């Protein structure tokens, strides 16, 4: 009704700025004819090419049937860089040829032989006309008036009240996610005098069994007491108690003063849990004493007290002070094992480092 | 002047000199280099190994195998005292030694010594300071091993570097943990007890010979698994294959879309 061309013209036409335009609209480029439009020989050639592609597709289809019959699923073929199932290889290859043949033929046909002419498609303004806008507004006002939203204040207020209360259950439900962790994040199962066991074979480790350059993945003796059926409990214990034990030549050690006597003859024990995001790390290089976390490439220098030398980790790897017991087995040396929380930072951890 | 000096020397003279030089040096080397002789006696093994060592290893490891440092104190070749026959059998038997060029990592390459020569070199290095011996075949007879137990030990102790299916992975500063497929069991065992390059030691007292045999059994089980899909892609499973399909497949689709949209040539 109001979409008459005259209206549109008035709306989109700005003030006469044509004289201000630095460049004239060059309009459409002249149509460039394809070789197949001008040369019948080229068109004939393209026609043959399209037909050949369709023919290739037909060959692929027949090849698939042949491949299905010819190869047993156990036949293998070496295709240069890998050895794979001959049946799968030829089924996939022939099906690919069959489908791509049709696809390429259709595109080639469209591009070379089907009509190639520019078509001008006029654009229309997207905004509604002023009349339509005024009409919509008037209808909305009639609606609010008829519903009585403005007059009936009881309904209006009770509705706002009901809507305001609706988010409350979300707060109650989220509040019920579980008890607060308390000091659970700050402690491990390590205790003074607890033996170090190998992971996963759970044998106690003697200091004399470790050679220079050795790496042992370890767990506390308390882990062996968790029944094997208690899978969740075992995983939780492993997630906080896991350690790695390395032996480094004594003359290569440069520990911070606080940790100077936390090892035994170059044997050092560190938490296996990265201080950045809590990934288990045991990627240890014996020559450089780097311990590299596979998740975000945090790198810890184990002969220098677990100092961070690269990556996003903010704190050194917690070291477990160890000693030997009367039988020569490695044990945790200090009360509660680790002297700081292991694993990634958390809100209540505070500034302790 | 110029034409005279050009005529004085034939254009091929340089090549002839080079070839002559190579022939003379090669002939001298063939005449003086120790050749492999069948040695049965262990003492003569040590003697032959010493000769081989002096020619092929002493440049970096020192004449007595005591290691060499350059003038800045940087280690050129580490001391071999106490590394044992197992280390020699691994390093030379996998072609890592002798090293082609210094770098972040000594790669595996074609073995250049014969088994006999490797045995002699091992006997010599063992004679200068003991160390782990080449393990007997009963130690790594993986047909007796338990691949399930070995898999658990491998995933805890080895997978951090070598990937849980032994496909290898990257370390720091250009070093890497090699792929463990198609490594012979004896070399696997020797690597665990000697800790070559960046790899830590896993001594027999802590990781028992049975544990090691189980690990080898696990790796051989993985190695023998068929690969019906074609590329294993690190055996990470369907996720990695899906990622390949997305990256490579969608990349190809984009290419085709560009071709479809492109204007035909005139």
Describe how the helices and strands are arranged:
The complex is a heterodimer of chains A (353) and B (266).
Chain A: H1 5-12, H2 35-38, H3 40-70, E1 76-78, E2 83-85, H4 86-112, H5 130-147, H6 153-165, H7 168-175, E3 196-198, E4 215-220, H8 221-224, H9 231-241, E5 243-247, E6 267-271, E7 283-285, E8 290-292, E9 299-301, E10 307-310, E11 319-320, E12 322-324, E13 330-332
Antiparallel strand pairs in A: 1-2, 3-4, 4-5, 5-6, 6-11, 7-8, 8-9, 9-10, 12-13
Chain B: H1 2-8, H2 13-32, H3 42-56, H4 58-61, E1 68-69, E2 75-77, H5 84-93, H6 115-127, H7 147-157, H8 159-162, E3 169-170, E4 176-177, H9 185-194, H10 209-224, H11 238-261
Antiparallel strand pairs in B: 1-2, 3-4
Q: What does the model show?
A:
The complex is a heterodimer of chains A (353) and B (266). Chain A has helices at residues 5-12, 35-38, 40-70, 86-112, 130-147, 153-165, 168-175, 221-224, 231-241, and strands at 76-78, 83-85, 196-198, 215-220, 243-247, 267-271, 283-285, 290-292, 299-301, 307-310, 319-320, 322-324, 330-332. Chain A has 353 residues and is of the alpha+beta class. Chain A has a five-stranded antiparallel beta sheet with strand order 3-4-5-6-11. A four-stranded antiparallel beta sheet of chain A has the order 7-8-9-10, with no helix packed on it. In chain A, strands 1-2 form a two-stranded antiparallel sheet. The two termini of chain A are 75 Å apart. Chain B is mainly alpha-helical. Helix content of chain B is 50%, strand content 3%. Chain B has a two-stranded antiparallel sheet with strand order 1-2. A two-stranded antiparallel ribbon of chain B has the order 3-4. The termini of chain B are far apart. Classes of the chains: A alpha+beta (353), B mainly alpha (266).
């Amino acid at each position: 009704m109001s979409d008459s061309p005259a209206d549109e013209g008035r709306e989109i036409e700005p003030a006469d700025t044509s004289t201000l335009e630095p460049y004239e609209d060059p309009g459409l480029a002249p149509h460039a004819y394809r070789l197949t439009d001008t040369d019948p020989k080229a068109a004939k050639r393209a026609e043959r090419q399209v037909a050949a592609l369709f023919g290739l597709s037909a060959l692929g289809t027949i090849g698939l049937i042949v491949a299905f019959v010819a190869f047993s699923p156990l036949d293998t073929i070496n295709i240069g860089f890998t050895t794979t199932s001959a049946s799968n290889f030829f089924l996939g290859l022939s099906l690919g040829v069959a489908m791509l043949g049709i696809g390429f033929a259709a595109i080639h046909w469209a591009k070379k032989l089907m009509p190639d002419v520019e078509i001008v498609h006029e654009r229309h303004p997207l905004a509604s006309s002023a009349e339509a806008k005024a009409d919509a507004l008037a209808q909305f006002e009639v609606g609010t008036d008829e519903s009585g939203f403005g007059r009936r204040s009881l309904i209006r207020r009770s509705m706002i009240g009901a809507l305001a209360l609706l988010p409350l259950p979300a707060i109650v439900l989220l509040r019920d996610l579980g008890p607060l962790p308390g000091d659970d994040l700050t402690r491990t199962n390590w205790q003074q005098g607890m033996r170090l066991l190998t992971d996963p074979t759970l044998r106690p480790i003697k200091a004399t069994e470790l050679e220079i350059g050795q790496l042992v993945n370890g767990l506390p003796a308390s882990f062996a007491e968790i029944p094997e059926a208690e899978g969740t409990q075992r995983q939780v214990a492993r997630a906080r108690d896991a350690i790695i034990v390395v032996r480094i030549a004594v003359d290569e050690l440069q520990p911070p003063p606080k940790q100077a006597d936390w090892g035994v003859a170059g044997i050092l024990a560190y938490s296996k849990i990265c201080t950045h995001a809590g990934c288990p790390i045991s990627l240890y290089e014996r020559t450089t004493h780097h311990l590299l976390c596979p998740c975000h490439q945090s790198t810890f220098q184990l002969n220098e007290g677990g100092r961070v030398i690269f990556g996003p980790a903010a704190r050194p790897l917690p070291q477990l002070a160890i000693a030997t017991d009367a039988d020569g087995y490695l044990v945790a040396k200090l009360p509660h094992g680790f002297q700081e929380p292991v694993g990634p930072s958390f809100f209540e951890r505070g500034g302790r480092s | 002047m110029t034409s005279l000096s050009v005529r004085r020397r034939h254009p091929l003279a340089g090549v002839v000199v080079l070839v002559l030089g190579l022939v003379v040096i090669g002939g001298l080397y063939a005449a003086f280099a120790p050749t492999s002789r069948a040695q049965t006696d262990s003492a003569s093994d040590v003697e032959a190994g010493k000769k081989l060592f002096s020619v092929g290893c002493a440049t970096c490891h020192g004449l007595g195998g005591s290691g060499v440092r350059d003038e800045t104190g940087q280690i050129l070749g580490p001391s071999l005292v106490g590394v044992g026959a197992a280390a020699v059998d691994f390093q030379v038997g996998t072609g890592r030694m002798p090293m082609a060029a210094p770098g972040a990592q000594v790669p595996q390459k074609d073995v250049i010594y014969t088994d006999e020569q490797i045995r002699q070199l091992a006997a010599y290095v063992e004679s200068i300071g003991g160390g782990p011996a080449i393990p007997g075949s009963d130690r790594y007879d993986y047909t007796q091993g338990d691949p399930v137990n070995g898999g658990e030990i491998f995933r805890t102790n080895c997978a951090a570097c070598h990937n849980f299916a032994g496909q290898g992975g990257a370390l720091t500063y250009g070093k890497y943990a090699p792929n463990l497929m198609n490594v012979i069991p004896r070399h696997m065992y020797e690597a665990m007890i000697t800790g070559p390059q960046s790899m830590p030691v896993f001594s027999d007292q802590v990781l028992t010979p049975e544990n090691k045999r189980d690990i080898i059994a696990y790796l051989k089980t993985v190695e023998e698994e068929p690969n019906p899909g074609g590329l294993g892609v690190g055996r990470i499973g369907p996720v990695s294959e899906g990622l390949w399909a997305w990256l490579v497949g969608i990349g190809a689709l984009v290419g085709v879309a560009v071709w479809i949209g492109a204007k035909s040539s005139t």
